[in-house]
TrEMBL record:
Protein name in UniProt: ABC transporter ATP-binding protein
PANTHER family according to UniProt: ABC TRANSPORTER, ATP-BINDING PROTEIN
Species classification: Bacteria, Bacillati, Bacillota, Clostridia, Eubacteriales
Organism expressing this protein natively: Pusillibacter faecalis
InterPro entries linked to this entry: AAA+_ATPase, ABC_transporter-like_ATP-bd, ABC_transporter-like_CS, P-loop_NTPase
Membrane-spanning residues: none
Example of a GO MF term: ATP hydrolysis activity
């Protein structure tokens, strides 16, 4: 079990995270917040690339700083951008990564075959990485992160830049790999985690806003989301979520406490919740 206890992280006089407490057991956790909210900061703290200004992070009750290499040995991490040698094949690159982790060659080779199969790269195992698409490279990255069969798998915006098909494929892969481990996945793409994250963590004003299931987060906005015909002037207290196509033509999706005249109630989705929660924060 991983516990973040009252963690604050300052960069000089700027507070990126303030008094954050979280408990992670097994399953997929999605870190969902707008750019600059502190997702990468939390990930760097969890991967010991940064240390808290205040508070502590515990793995099974022991401080991860004190555990050091022992903690990093049970961690798999895919950063936003991972470095690789374009002239390598996935198999060569995975062997290199396994050697860095001191995994014996024979054990590594068996594991690499299994991982290449799992991430759907068996047929491309001996092709040069320079020829790979973004999605294929991300699958190599996740295979590297899985080499040590980690108990804790951390993925920082793993689907950024992938096309929809690769995104779905990657999501399925994460779901397959989650099993008994803790998977923490950062993103600002709602659809990436709506279906696979059991718990969604949101930050607001650099503090923890919630850690809850997608259904419970959406339930806060039950009976508050409506379709109105496009072009309807919005009254006070009505917030425009998005524009789109309804069954009877173009519509606007509106958040408001009382049903607007002519409004058709619709079930709130996680994207509605995201837009509603961060409505004061203009990009
Ligand atoms: N080394 C640093 N020095 C000063 N400020 C920093 C530093 N790293 C991050 N920040 C600031 O801390 C805040 C949180 O940054 P962080 O990268 O954690 O956000 P994020 O949610 O991961 O955003 P993104 O989705 O854009 O990566 C931002 O305002 C950022 O500018």
């Amino acid at each position: 079990m991983l516990c973040v206890e009252h963690v604050t992280k300052n960069y000089g006089s700027f507070t990126a995270l303030e008094d954050v407490s979280l408990t992670f057991t097994s399953g997929v956790y999605g870190l969902l917040a707008p750019n600059g909210a502190g997702k990468t900061t939390l990930i760097k703290l969890l991967t010991t690339l940064l240390f808290p200004t205040r508070g502590q992070i515990l793995w099974d009750g022991e401080d991860i700083q004190a555990l050091g290499a022992e903690y990093r040995g049970l961690l798999g991490y895919l950063p936003q951008q991972f470095g690789y040698y374009p002239g390598d094949t996935p198999r060569q690159f995975l062997r290199y990564a396994a050697a860095l982790q001191c995994i014996p060659r024979r054990e590594a080779d068996g594991r690499i075959d299994h991982l290449l199969e799992t991430v759907g790269l068996r047929d491309a195992a001996d092709k040069k990485l320079r020829k790979f698409s973004g999605g294929m490279l991300q699958r190599v990255g996740i295979a590297v992160a899985m080499l040590n069969d980690p108990k804790l798998l951390i993925l920082d915006e793993p689907t950024a830049g992938l096309d929809p098909r690769e995104r779905v494929r990657f999501r399925n892969l994460i779901h397959t790999l989650s099993g008994e481990r803790i998977v923490i996945l950062s993103t600002h793409i709602v659809s990436d985690i709506e279906t696979i994250a059991g718990q969604i963590i949101m930050f607001k004003d650099h503090r923890l806003y919630c850690c809850d299931s997608p259904a419970r987060i959406c339930a806060q906005f039950q009976d508050k989301v409506f379709h109105l015909p496009a072009g309807t002037p919005l009254a006070q207290g009505q917030f425009l979520l998005s524009e789109g196509q309804g069954e009877a033509g173009p519509v606007v999706r509106v958040l408001c406490d009382a049903p607007p005249s002519g409004g058709i109630p619709v079930a709130p989705g996680l994207e509605d919740a995201f837009l509603a929660i961060y409505r004061e924060e203009q990009p």
